[in-house]
Amino acid sequence: MGKWDALIAEFVDPDGILLQVLLTIDEEGKTLSDSHQKAPSESGVPAAEGDSDLPDWFVEARGRANGRYGSVEHDGCRIAYQTWGRAGSPPLLMLHGAGASSEWWEATALFLADRFHIVAPSVSGVGRSQWRDSYRIEQSVEEALACAVAGGVAGSGIRPICVAHSFGSEVGVRLAVDPARPISQLILVDSILGFDGSDEPAFAERERQFYPSLDDAARRFSTLPRDDYGPKFLRRHVARQSLERVTLPSGEQLWSWRADPNVMTRLVCAPVFDRIGDAQCLVDFIYGEQSSMNSAELREQHAKAVNCDATFFGIEDAGHHIPVDQPEKLALGIRHLAALRK
């Protein structure tokens, strides 16, 4: 029995739709296919305009996952978050990377909602959250925690597992090292911790861009780094969820990205890598074996820096953006690491 077959047998309900999907994983991990029939949205999560090409299994899983949007007011700004699963299930907090949003986690959450109660915030400046004039990483930490409490996966003695992708590691580690904001386990997904950082903004200022149609805007969607190991339908879906219709002062309606184009330019963030050894919980790692951002040398640094015997879980055929490259395998990895730490 192979690695993925064993994890499927261990974690997936044999009566659920997810088993049918996961058992189709072939040697290349191509579960998420564009060949399914079209189907309408059936969940509490609003479908993006033009999202008529979602596969049937994805739409059905959406309907079962109990997905919802919520929001909290924090420091004068409305912060949006998404939830999946049922209250009372083991709590899971999912933190997105730079410029991404809660919507990047949806596909992974569909494979976890049967076992976990999940909250995924969009920090200020991205997703459906409001923009600020400037951004601080500690503010992002407080926003994530406020969403976790509002969504029911933190507070009153509740200690969630925290899964943080890429730059989200900066928030995850800050939660892990503070005894007043305890999490039970930190799982870092293709973490960039260990790259050189600066207290000063390192990105050039950009103007917001506008496009005549949703399709025209969505075609321009790309990731940084520009790897692409995931299914085309999922990339299109994330792109559409990342766009909104904007009415200009002239009355003309165009499309633009929800994210503040200068959210990283105006972010103040001192690197936190040297504090990871002070984590108040166990720390584990998931990485993409094709990632250009997470080398063997960096993983060696991570292993030396943590104060526990960390597990490193590799996902083949995944680059840096694992949540949209291999969400089903990422979900199995999360289940596996969570079970190891019980």
In brief:
The chain has 342 residues and is α/β, with parallel strands linked by helices. It has helices at residues 3-11, 17-22, 56-64, 106-110, 137-151, 169-177, 214-218, 232-241, 296-305, 322-325, 327-340, and strands spanning 68-74, 77-84, 91-95, 117-121, 135-136, 161-165, 185-189, 243-247, 253-257, 267-268, 282-288, 312-315. The strands form 3 sheets. The chain has an 8-stranded mixed sheet with strand order 1-2-4-3-6-7-11-12, with helices on both faces. A two-stranded parallel ribbon has the order 5-10. Strands 8-9 form a two-stranded antiparallel sheet.
How would you describe this protein?
28% of the residues lie in helices and 18% in strands. It has one domain (36-340): Rossmann fold. With 342 residues, the chain is of the alpha/beta class. The two termini are 24 Å apart.
Supply the key terms.
342 residues; alpha/beta; Rossmann fold; eight-stranded mixed beta sheet; two-stranded parallel sheet; 11 helices
